[in-house]
Design a protein that fits this description.
Length: 400
Amino acid sequence: MQEPSPRYTGYTSFDYLEPHADYRVFALATEFDRVPSYDLGLDEEQTARVTRILHDEHAISLHEHPKILTADPYELREYNHTGRNAMGFAGLARSGMSAYFDNFMNGTNCVTSESGWKWNDVIFDIGLRFADVAQQDHVVLARTVADLEKAKATGRIALVAGLEAATAIENELDRLDILYGLGIRQIGIAYSMANQLGSGLAEPTDGGLTNFGRRAVERMNKLGLAIDISHSSDRTSREVVEASSVPIFITHAGARAVWPTNRMKPDDVIVACAERGGVIGIEAAPHTTLSAEHPEHSLESVMDHFRYCVDLVGIDHVAFGPDTNFGDHVGLHDSFSGHLTIQQAHGHVEHPRVPYVAGMENPAENFTNIVGWLVKNGYSDEDIRKVIGTNVLRVLREVW
């Protein structure tokens, strides 16, 4: 974890409102020191190199949810029902990131419906989050590559707004334009459940990309919406890569060859994505990117997927999308397991259950530990620069 950015002035979510009068107050998780810090055993020179790299280079997370969870994860549904989630501004200020793709509540946005993914809920979520961000100037909404460059140059953090699935557009193609107009710049095709565009990875039958889905991909390309296939089925993923006229992202996943669950991507999908110029961001949400060598989920098992993907498609096509938040992520999965179809996506592969992912527990520490691991394991500054930032920027310059 880095020292707080000098640009951060201490703003916390909803400082512009009156607690209890303007919004309901919940007991929230702590942003720091919820779990023990992760010791990579770096020496003084290596630690200084990590700090220098994060200061000098773009560090872009392809997928995060940097909201602060409730202290009791079983209050999350009630918390989300208010539509107002606190963002971990203080934690982000210590993250070393120059930008992150924020996917908000995704399938847990239960403002009007217990099932999530509803259009009104998505708009409610986006609008309230943007209102909060607008009250301060350390985290800034990015709509262009120039915005990302400006944020880095001025010591700010760029927020790239994304959605994990296009489920909320239903069969309304113009809703993609509306989302783009509101500031969304990245969108998934389907979550684990199928929708009007295609199949999700948890479905028993893989129907692939629908005709409407093909029209949606074409519209996303015209708009400049970056496409994500992390939660799409294998056939849908392949067909999206083929249908898109520009590179696509796998923003947060790993390699099925390393850990055999549907949540991971098979080699042919990763290769197809890379051959068209795309990038895979390595996932770190609890009990996802495990490995036979490191079945107890930690930074080491996450990096087993990183090494495999680099060997498979090359250093130019791999990045990181840790998919973390501030609070008990395991508890979130437990309380929303039905909404997120976690069991169907992850299957029944036996593994040790952990209370948190050591070294990849929240957005404040992820990139410090990622860069620390890369430094410790002998990666060059140029290779580190690629996987923490410039690979993502290259795709965005072509897509946006």
